[in-house]
Amino acid sequence: MKSKRVLIVDDNDLNRKLFENLIGQVCLFESAKNGLEALALLEGNRFDLILMDIQMPQMDGLTAMKKIKLTDHDHCPIIAITAFAEMEDRHSFIEQGFDEFMIKPIRPREFLESIKAFLSDKAPEPHKIEQNKPISLEPVILDMQIVKQLMKYNQPETIKNVFLDFVKECDSLFNELDLTKDAFDFKQLEAKLHTIKGNSGTLGANSIFLLAQEGEINAKLENRSQTRKILHELQNEILNFKKYIMEETIFNQ
User: Fold this and answer.
1) Domains and CATH numbers, the chain
2) Is the pLDDT of residue 5 over 60?
3) How far apart are CA 5 and CA 150, in angstroms?
4) Residues 27/2, Cβ–Cβ less than 8 Å
5) In this predicted model, which residue has the larger pLDDT, 103 or 43?
6) Sign of the Cα pseudo-torsion (196, 202, 205, 209, in order)
7) Contact 215, 234 (CB under 8 A)
8) How many CB atoms sit inside 10 A of residue 252's CB?
9) Mean pLDDT across the stretch 218-236?
10) For the chain, how many helices (H) and strands (E)?
11) Residue 131 scores a pLDDT above 50
């Protein structure tokens, strides 16, 4: 397994770092931030599996997958990693050429089990892949089960830094917004909330995830008053999360 090579393609820095931390425990990897970078890496390298985000700048995952299938890398399985959580979307991705479909937020244990299965040429049956099951989340600041899964593959200090990087990313996204204005750029706001939702779900920051999810829905509907209310609640929840991480003793082991 250690000789196997995985190409991670994701424009989200935190998401990519988490995938690298997990996959690096079982095999080699290379990373790309978009489809164009992925195609460039494929010119001089061979991979046993490609993890492909869908929504990326410059070249999206669907376009990149179709281009890869036209090269001599067409034998390499390509898994779509997407936040589209409806099961019927799976059939669309498979029909368009992906070999499998996983939902963000990932769950570390199930995620690695699926990766190992593909790398061992024993790809699980689609209906058995737990990553494709809708996830019901408890509204807690931090899901300790997810933390323990992450710490199984990484040092506590590493995971703590990943959480703090997430807080910095949230702060950066909010700094680009001016909540004092009446008008919103709803498309921009929807994209930012989508990013926060994906990362918080993967890291087990459930309360942030649920608020970001609700905010994304309201931004899509251009519901100004409700969106503004959720954004203020989200800012407070991010502050609570940072305080919790700084005080949580599990990271001091």
Assistant:
1) 5-132 (3.40.50.2300), 144-252 (1.20.120)
2) yes
3) 21
4) yes
5) 43
6) positive
7) yes
8) 8
9) 93
10) 10, 5
11) no
Question: pLDDT of 155-202, one tens digit each?
Answer: 889 899 999 999 999 998 888 877 667 677 888 899 889 889 988 988
Kindly state the greatest CA–CA separation across the chain.
Answer: 55
Cα(181)–Cα(92) distance, rounded to whole angstroms? 39
Rounded distance, CA 185 to CA 167, Å? 23
Provide the token pair at 173.
């996204």
CB atoms within 10 A of CB 116: 16
Across the beta sheet with 28-32, what order do the strands follow? 28-32, 5-9, 49-53, 78-82, 100-103
Give per-residue pLDDT as tens, 88-128. Answer: 567 788 889 999 888 877 888 888 888 988 888 665 554 44
Residue type, 186: F
For residue 109, the number of C-alpha atoms closer than 13 Å in the C-beta half-sphere is 7
Amino acid at 198: G
Ranges of beta strands (E only) in the chain are 5-9, 28-32, 49-53, 78-82, 100-103
Q: Do the Cβ atoms of 80 and 67 come closer than 8 Å?
A: no
Does residue 53 come out as left (phi exceeding 0), alpha (psi in the -120 to 50 range) or beta? Answer: beta
* DSSP for residue 125: P
C-beta separation of 31 from 69 below 8 A: no
H-run or E-run covering 253: none
